[in-house]
Amino acid sequence: MTLCRRCAIRCNIERVYGNDFTAPSQVDAPAEDDPGFLALLDDEGRVEPRDAMPEAYRKTLVRQIAQHAHSEIIGMQPEGNWITRAPSLKRKAILMAKVQDEAGHGLYLYAAAETLGVERADLLDRLHAGTQKYSSIFNYPTITWADMGAIGWLVDGAAIVNQVPITRCSYGPYARAMVRICKEESFHQRQGFEILHTLSNGTPAQHAMAQDAVNRWWWPSLMMFGPPDDASPNSERSMRWGIKRHSNDALRQKFVDMTVPQSHALGLTLPDPELAYDEASGHWRTGPIDFTELFEVIKGNGPCNVQRMAHRRGAHERGAWVRDAADAYAAKRAARTEAAVA
Ligand code: 3HC
User: Which pLDDT value is given to residue 2?
Assistant: First the structure.
């Protein structure tokens, strides 16, 4: 057992998945080119928390899983904004369930990161200090009800394309967490499509509202996949390690190919005059993507970065009493258990 720095109580994070005898920090990390490690990856084997792993592999996973977890919880804000204004009780209940799902995804992912020997409290500190990122997409405002449809259809649709391959990630806890997350994202994508379908086939004003939302969310959704491959410093190594299974551009293209026919079914257009089907390759080709916007949003200059972080920090501060109460309860239980076995 180890002493948790934050709550000063005994915790068993490092025993998760049977890692009873060694903490990650006590295992001699193999070199990046360790033949045993590379052979495991070549065989499509899974790395588990008790396994020795190169330090850079562990750090890359912490970085990606933490950013992913942060994205899930920050992602609650743009949609949470509409819970009180959803147009019916049914829509309200669905949206509330969806936002709760995102909180759950954050929890699975923080738990997966903790199996790598980091503490959730530290990861949150890094988010609040701005030293760990979250997805660019959640820095855009949700102006109308149709934005709930566009987020579900496009943002969750992009998330599915990006995240289904992570169910085959070489790191076991991350891969397993993604199975349930992807199932829930599929539901989210369908509910977004259904909202837009209803609006698109409604009054002219409702149709226009749906079209406006799609116009605003299309390009940011394409940017969610990250910079183009030739400007993605992490892709090559993450793909060699089986953390990422496809490049950013390959996944972006898959999303475009999947989404264009759906836009036809919705009766909505995508805001790209250069979008065209390329017979030779069998792919839909978009016009150029303005990646300077992505880099600006990542740097903190998106329309809602300041608001999102202020809200997150405030929520964390307001929740301090809950964490204190949980720590006090856990300490009491641990003391009781210790007394009972003494
Ligand atoms: N927003 C913010 N930062 C981004 C970004 C984006 N859309 N795309 C890339 N970046 C950052 C990377 O984190 C990296 O920064 P770092 O080195 O300081 O960490 C830098 O830009 C360079 O990009 P790379 O392509 O080299 O980085 P990666 O190899 O990590 O690829 C990724 C980026 C494709 C986002 C990958 O990390 C990934 O697949 N992550 C898992 C999925 C995820 O985090 N999705 C976020 C959305 S969650 C979501 O959609 C929730 C759902 O409910 C809607």
Answer: 40
Determine the distance separating the centroid of ligand 1 and the alpha carbon of 33, expressed in angstroms. 25
Q: For the chain, which ranges sit under pLDDT 50?
A: 1-21
The CA dihedral of 322, 327, 330, 335, to the nearest 10 degrees, is -140
Tokens for 3, please give them: 């002493």
**291: buried, middle or exposed (CB in 10 Å: 19+, 13-18, 0-12)?**
middle
Q: Which tokens is 240 given?
A: 């060699």
Q: Please tell me the distance from the alpha carbon of residue 290 to that of residue 227, in angstroms, as a whole number.
A: 10
Residue 194: how many other CB atoms lie within 10 Å:
14
Determine whether the shortest distance from the Cβ of 114 to ligand 1 is under 6 A.
no
pLDDT confidence of residue 26: 59
**Which protein residue has the closest C-alpha to ligand 1 atom 8?**
226
Ligand 1 atom nearest 234 alpha carbon: 26
Are 67 and 134 a contacting pair, CB within 8 Å? yes
Phi, psi values for residue 164, rounded to 5°: -55, -45
Which residues, at least 6 apart from 12, have a Cβ–Cβ distance to it below 8 Å?
Answer: 1
Q: How many angstroms separate the CA atoms of 240 and 38, rounded? A: 9
Catalogue the E-assigned strands of the chain: 2-3, 10-11, 276-278, 283-285
Q: Which of 60, 67, 76 to mutate to test the pocket of ligand 1 (most atoms within 8 A of CB)?
A: 67
Torsion of CA 190, 112, 58, 237, to 10 degrees: -10
Question: In which residue are the tokens 């949003």 written?
Answer: 297
**Mutation pick for ligand 1 pocket among 107, 234, 254 (CB with most ligand atoms within 8 Å):** 234
What pLDDT is stored for residue 27 in this prediction?
65
Q: Mutation test of ligand 1: which of 70, 162, 184 has the most ligand atoms closer than 8 Å to its C-beta?
A: 162
Token duo for residue 290: 């303005």
